[in-house]
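Slide 14.
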Amino acid sequence: MFKVRIKFSKEDELRFISHLDLTRTWERLARRAELPLLLSQGFSPRPKMAFGPPLPLGYISKTELIEIALTERMGLKEIYKRLAEQLPRGLKVLKIEVLTEEMPALSAIETVSYYVRTRSNEEEDKIQERVQEFFLKKELWIKRKSPKGEKMINLRAGVFDLKFKKEGEEVRWEMLLSVGNQGTVRPEEVIKALGGQGVELYLVDIQRQEL
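Slide 15: predicted structure.
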């Protein structure tokens, strides 16, 4: 068995496809590229693939990760060539490398960086005050709805870094947030928490930067 890890971008054309649809897209792509895929056992064999943390609907990303298991060794340039010929609009392969035991597992990813654009008429000093107040809190619990019901999330515990720059009405944010087993924090939840008390922030766009 031979495994590769592929870094790819998900661009605006695929902004509104779900993580499940993205996995199916990659399965079709790998089959059309005629890669020697290692298949699962059972009545409905499927390619053995693993993805990084799911990207929520409506986000775009500069860095997504997928691991694909192959039945035989192939040159990385040949894999790239075959995939490039079949890529749909909105997907770009950025890097392919052989998966080794020394590389951290995708399930071990604990932080994600985001680039977020918002709009606001507020003064920069007032927004900075809200950021400082946010980091002074030891806890900030919010309610999150899911198909399984509601649960409480400590938003503050999952925000490690938060920077912004204001140009005109546009406010550009860089965020480092938690993801995975320790709890996933979403950029829109951070923006909502920073708003209020006279500060209004209107979400424009979210882009995942790095895993």
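Speaker note: Residues 110-210 form a domain with the Alpha-Beta Plaits fold (CATH 3.30.70.3190).
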